[in-house]
Structures are given as C-alpha cells and as structure tokens.
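> @MW can you paste both from yesterday?
MW: sure, first one:
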Amino acid sequence: MIDTGSTGFMLIAASLVMLMTPGLAFFYGGLVGRKNVLGIMIQSFVSLVWTTVLWFAFGYSLCFSGGEGGVIGNLNMAFLAGTDLNSIFTGNNQIPLYVFVAYQMMFAIITPALISGAFTNRVRFPAYMIFLTLWLICVYFPLVHMVWGNGLLAQWGVLDFAGGIVVHASAGMAALASVFYVGKRNIIERGPHSIPLVALGTGLLWFGWYGFNAGSEFKVDNITVAAFLNTDVAASFAGVTWLFLAWILEKKPKLIGLLTGSVAGLATITPAAGFITIGHAALIGIVAGVVCYFAVALKNKLKWDDALDVWGVHGVGGILGVMMLGLFASKAVNPMVTIDGLLIGGSWEFFMKQAVSVFAVGAYCFVFTYIMLKAINLITPVKVTRQEEEAGMDASLHGEIAYEQD
C-alpha cells in the first residue's frame, strides 16, 4: 500500500535533485569568463531535456529491468512498457514506481553535466551532444545497473548510498580524461566573472543535495534523517577546513575556497550518507577538505587544465568517500551494512571490495571517455578553433551573449 508521507517526500526529493542541474549551471557559469557563460550553462540545461528523452526511451529499462548480477539490464521496460499509474516500486512497496523513475532520472541528468566543467571553453556543441548520449549509454546506465539495479557490484556486496561510484567517481575520472584529450585552453581567462553566481549555484547545489542523499532511502525513516544530517555536517566541516587551510597557505580567506570545499564535502559524503554515524560524517568532511584541496593544488602544479576542478572535487571526493565508507560503515546505522567498516570492528574484505570497485570503475571511465572522444572526433570536430575560443563560446557557437561587452 502506498505511504503518502514517503511518496510526498520523494516527490520533493526528486524536485530538489532536479534543481541541482540549474544550480550547477549557475555554479559553472559564474566560474567562467563573461564570453563563455551561456556556452557552459547550455551544457547543463541540455542534459536536463535530452537525458529525460533517453531515460524514458530506454535508459530506465537498461538500468532497472532484468540483468540480475550482470553489467546491464534489458529493454523490456523501454518507454516504460508494462507500467502505469498503479505500479508500485517493489524496493519498499511504499511509493509509486513512477516516483522512483522520476527520482533516478534526475541523477542521470546531473551526472554527465558535471563533466562539462572540466573542458569548459574547448568543446563544440555537436560533439558534446554525442558525448552526452554515448556516455550515458556506455558508462552511466551500466554503472547504475551494477550498483543499484541488482547487478554485478551489488551482488558482490559493494555499497554506494547515493552515488560516490555511480555519479562522482565516474564523472570525475571522465572529466580528467576529457582534459587530457582536449588539452589546454588557448585563451586563459582572468578568473571567475561572477563570484555571486558561484555562491548562488553552490546554495542551490547544497539545497538540492538534501534530496540527493536523504531521498536515496526512498522512504521516510531514521536512515533518511541520518543521511540528511550527515550531508550538512560533512559539507560544513569540509568548507571550514578548506577555508582555513587556504587562509593559512594563501594568506586570504576566500569565498571561492569556502564554496569549493563545501561541494567537496558534499561529494565525499554522498556514498556514505546513510551508512555512518554523524561523528564519522564530520571526520569525512575534514578529510575531504584536506585531500580535495591538495588534489586541486596537485592539478595546478601539473598544469592539467581542468578548468573548474571537476576531478579534484568530484573525482577525488567520490573515490575518497567510497573508501571511507569501507572504513566507517555501521550495521547499527543501517541494516543494509552486513559487515562493519574496517575501523569499527569489521574486516579487510568489505574495505577491499569498496576500494577495488571504485578504482576499477574510475579506470574504465577514464579509458572509455578518452577513446570515445577520439571516436567522436572522426564524426565531428570535438575542439573549438582558436578563432572560436577567442570570440567566446556564446557568440561563436550559440549566437547569443550573456552580457553586452564593454
């Protein structure tokens, strides 16, 4: 029987996750220069509409229909065949199936959009559309099935509450491969054109993340509350850690650092949010602030042109969160945990499964994305020309401008 409270909550959670994609557009849009705002924002918004089409056509079916213990599902539920308004989500028999379909669709929308921040100002829109389509089909849909669709990793005992493996590690490693393929920008921008837009985007992302993590329980109970509170605590501790670390090393307390650190904490807590205690969430936030800060510093030292630090924040944060889940997962918090984390009395077995899975997924995402970009380039040029980059993505590729130029 449908639980109206859980159903109402999940509709709100799905709406919150949807809001994260416009939030990401503002976050990325503020970080780029004035001539490239619309070029980066459209890459988020087009995922909102195009991914929805693919999800309805066959994405949901490939993720959640058949294929138990395998890598990908089947097409038995393409175009939501065999479902109607009375269909119930069998995961808990408390919410309509369509609510689950909508909620999971919002995850599919934001994940490839995350990658776009790494190659900002350098990828042509037709190539991005092909990239978006192929990456969803060949990376995201199989990962969802393996982790959340009773596939290979789920049956091996791997846990990922809300997307450390499926969302952040995959997007972050794909972002790094994209950076290596497209190379450095010819025109180096002077810095974020609008830090207030970045702050607005961060606020929307943080707000949406409550739906992202707490909603992944798919009902309202004590685990929902734990995931909600753990999300806020980890983000706050990570933001404060990054702020003071940068203040010490860079001599100034910077808003961009505070905002970036908070997002790093949000990404890192995601896989563990419903499996750990609040004290461990605070610890994960501190570690995320330190590790992701130095990951970004390493990226800068190596001169990788990951423009908006997708690898350092989401890739490193996602991998770190999955491994720390292997250290701190608690059966007392969530009965889905069958073996406690290594540092609270568990064995090496669960920790090693978490580590092996996230590194294997990261390697696959990196290699596949690099090869895919080379293949796309045979169909249509991936990189913008120097003239297009000098003119800016907005005018040269889209025929629009965000601001009148001085």
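MW: second:
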Amino acid sequence: MTQPLSGFTVVENDSFVAAPSACLALSQMGAEIIKIDPLKGGPDIDRWPITAEGRSIYWGTLNRGKRSVAIDLRSEEGQELAQSLITATGEDPAKTGIFITNNVGRSFLTDDVLRAKRDDLIHVKVQGSADGGPGVDYTVNAETGIPGITGPAESPRPANHALPAWDLLCGQAAVTAVVSGLLQRSTTGQGTYAEIALKDIALSAVANLGWYTEALQPAGEREKHGNHIFGTFGTDFTTSDHRSVMITAITRRQWQALVESTGMTAVVEALQTALGIDLSQEEARYAQRETLEALFKPWFAARTLDQVTAELTGSGVLWAPYRSIGEVAREAAGTSGAGGSTASGADGAGAGVIRGLASEQLGDMLVGANPIRFDGEYLSGEQPTVLGEATHEVLSEKLGLTQTELGRLSDSGVLNS
C-alpha cells in the first residue's frame, strides 16, 4: 500500500528516546526524515546498548530510516544551514516545514526565529517539564508516584520500571501533534507550535487512570502488592520446571475458565460458602487474592510449562508464559529473516512486527515495524542510518548547494568531509 505520509519531509534535531521515536514512527509511515546532527553526534551517539566494537545499537535502532546531516551547529554558517533545512518549502510547501526537536539552549532554533522565516511552520518541541526545566523518563517517573507501588510487596524501596514508558508515550503524542498541525495547515493555512512536556505526559496518564483520585478516597494510597493485579485476580505462578506464567481473571468468563480448567470448581464453591462471598465479583477476588494464589499454586507447581500450555490453550483462560529478552530475540531471529536480510523485502508486507535489518556498522539487527497495520500490513522498509552520511546529498538536493560550496564548507569544518 502507499504509505500515508509518503512525500512529506520532516526535519528533526534531537536526542534520546521521545523525539527520535516520533520521527521513526513518521518515517515508517512514509515521511522523509532529515536528522540534523552535530558533527560528532548528539549526547546519545554512544549510548548503551552497544556492540562489541562500541557502536550504539540504541542510536542505530531509534534513528534508522533517516538521512543524517552532520553540521557544526556552533558556527554561524552551520546554524543558517540548519534553519534553511527546517524552513525550506521544497516543490510542495504543504508537505514541508515540519520540525521536531527537544533541543535546549539553541537560540537559533527557537520558534520565533524559525517562524520569522516560515510562518506556516509546524514545530513540535519535546521538553522535560512545562516550565522549561529538565527531566527524563527516570526522574519524571519518580515524581509520578508509580515507583512506590511497583516491585515486590515486601520491599520498602521504590522500583522504577525498566521500560521508558513516558518517553514512548511522549513520542506518540509528538506524532499526533504533527498530524494535527498538518490538518490545521491544510484547512486554515496556519502553522502550529506545540510543546509537549514529558512530565505532563506522565502526570496526565496516571491521573486519567483514576489513580490520583483513588489516593484521596478514605482508603488512602495504594500499597505495593507485587504481581497481583489491582482490583481483580491475577498473579504469577511457577511451574515444576521452574518457569513462570502470568494468569489473569478480569472478567467473569475468564474466572470461570480458570476455575474449570484447573479442576477447582468444587473447592471454589466450598470457599465461597465458607466465607459468604461471591468470587465471580472482581472485588471479592481481589480481597481474597492471597488465598486464591495459594489455592491455584499447587496446580501449576505439579506441571511443566509444556503441560500448562497444553491444558490452558483454547480453554478461555487469559494467560502467558514469562519469557526473557533473549528468548524473544532468538525466536524473532529465527522467523524475521535476521542474519543479513529482511523477512519480507523493502515494503515489509507479510512480515510480523519484529523483523531483521542488516547493518554494516551494527551487524544483524532486530527492529520493530510500525505497530499500526494499514490494510492488514505493518509498515517498515527503513534502512540503517550512519551519522552524517547524507550531509552533502541532502544539502545539494534541498538547498541547491554546489559541489564547490559543499567543498568549501567541508574544508572550513562546518560540514563533515
């Protein structure tokens, strides 16, 4: 299918997760992404995970499918080149003039400076906090209160989630801001300046789940409860071959399926009678979560993971085995075409959300396609990105610089050679 943003050009100047993940998503939907980088790369150019040779898998994965233009952004000429790339109209002005950034302290890239050069600019800025203060996922997460209810129930220490959830949500909010800006410009001719604070993303998300309102109720703040699901029944169990599985029973049907599949119907009925409760009700299951955990624990402990799989598959029980990152990677490598080729050619049609991508610098990579399926297909087709590799090509193509001009800029140190 034709990618929905095919023909659009987005310029980015950023680092770390939120803004680069937004531009990766836009790239997967067909947009051309021009990434303006400092000559030696941004602060995340060497961030872990890294290859044995010390190259950043992190940077290479988040920034693939982009055209990297390396410029000395401390020089006046370099700053003017960056401004020109951002505000260039191209052959179709409706599909250019889109800029995403999270830069701090670069006065030549502020909205008023750029908008003076192009008033219909769609400018999206990712920030730490709404007042302009710093913040990253780890510090923002600490301020939400979530680490205080995460982790083992017996541990008094807060536990940060390993996944940078707020960064990733912020990236998708930036995509929404771009698409909203395009819609406004197409209907009114006006540009937009959208600011998205990482801290706002986190606080808004938690508030919209009702968790802050809950803390003001008579029962007070929620306590840690490990892997138990809040407000219903669900937790982890260990099999006889020392594997772990997650069991959930959120709906009545799921609860009934769990009871019947484990042969606990009579026991559960007796428990309900003895306690005078109805375990088909979520709140009752949650109140009795530790009792129910003890009730089902022997069933899982007596079976291997293969046996659990055989008995629960197709039963209506909502469950999943715990897998390590390595297990997921090895399985994906066996089915995605990793090992030097993509699984499905340039357009990604027919492949799953994880596929292989060969890179001269990073070797065989496992990367994720855009999770939105258009007409049943994941969108992918990106290529590896090398810092500064597209500098001369992009400046010639977008700004009309001649080889002589490019050579002079390289000799003077404004561009990479």
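> thanks! Residues 9-205+387-411 form a domain with the Rossmann fold fold (CATH 3.40.50.10540).
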